[in-house]
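Problem 12. The chain below contains 293 residues. Write out its predicted structure in C-alpha cell notation.
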Amino acid sequence: MFIDRFRSYLQFEKRYSAHTVSAYVTDLQRYHTYLANHGLTDADADHRDVRSYFADLIEAGQSPSSVNRHISALRTYYKFLNREELIHNNPMPKVRVLKTPKKLPVVINEEKLISLLDSRELFPEGFEGLRDLLVLEFLFGTGARRAELVSIEEKDVDLYNKTVRVLGKRNKERLIPLNRSLLLLLKEYLEEKKAQPFENKTSFLIVTNSGKQAYPDLVYLIVKKYLSLITSQQKKSPHVLRHTFATSMLNHGAELNDIKELLGHAGLAATQIYTHNTVERLKLIYKQAHPKA
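Solution.
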C-alpha cells in the first residue's frame, strides 16, 4: 500500500494539520483492512466496493459526519494515487456524501464564563492555577483552536504590541489582539513560569507541571474541569470556548468578516453558522420583550 507516501503528501504538500493527517491515515488503515478481508486492493475496488465499505461503517454505528470524513479521506487518497500514476481507477466520483443535520454551535453562558474567569479563588495557587486560568482566558479571549494553543511559543506573544501570532490550519499565520485582562495574566504567568525549577525549559507557552510542552488532552481536561463548575451541558470542550468567543463577538457588534479573520477561517461559510445563535438570541429577546409575542 501507499500510506507512507500519502502521509507525506498530506503533511508537506497539502499542509494539513497533524490532527487531520492522523484521522485520514487511521481511516485509510481501516479501509485497507476491509479490502484485505474481501481479497481486494486499491486498484481492484470499484464504486460498489467502496459503497459497501461505507454501508459497513453505518451499520457499525458511525455517524453521518464520521462517514463523510472517511469519504473525504478516500477522495483525497484516490486523487493522490491517480496523480502519482500508482493506479488508474478512481471509484470515488460515484460516491456521494451523506446528509447531516445542521447543528448550532454549543456555547457557554457569557456572564457565567466571565464570572468564572474573574474568580481566582477557584484556581489553585501558584503555577498550576495560573496555567489553568490562562488556558481558559486564552481560548475565550482569542478564539484559538486547541491545537493552535499548544503550538504557541513564548516568542509568538508580543506584549508590547498586544498581539499573539497563531499558526493555524495549513500553516496559515494570523495575528490576534490580546485584551487587557489576558495581557496582564500572560505577564503574570510568564514570570511564574520563569521561576519554576523545571529540569528542561521549553519555549512553548503552555506547559505541563513538569515543564514539558502541553499536550492536547491536558488542555481538554483543564477546560472540562472548570466549565463543569458553571454548566451541566454535555459539551465542555476547548472548541466550545471558540464558539463562545465568536458568538460573543457577534453579539457585541463585531462584523462577520472580522470574526472570520480572527478565527482563521478560509471563507465566510464556516463563520456564518454563528449568526444562527444570534438570531436565536434575538428571538428570545423578542419573545420576552414584545407585548404580543
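Discussion. The domain at 110-288 is CATH 1.10.443.10 (hpI Integrase; Chain A). Students who got a different answer should revisit the alignment rule from Section 12.3.
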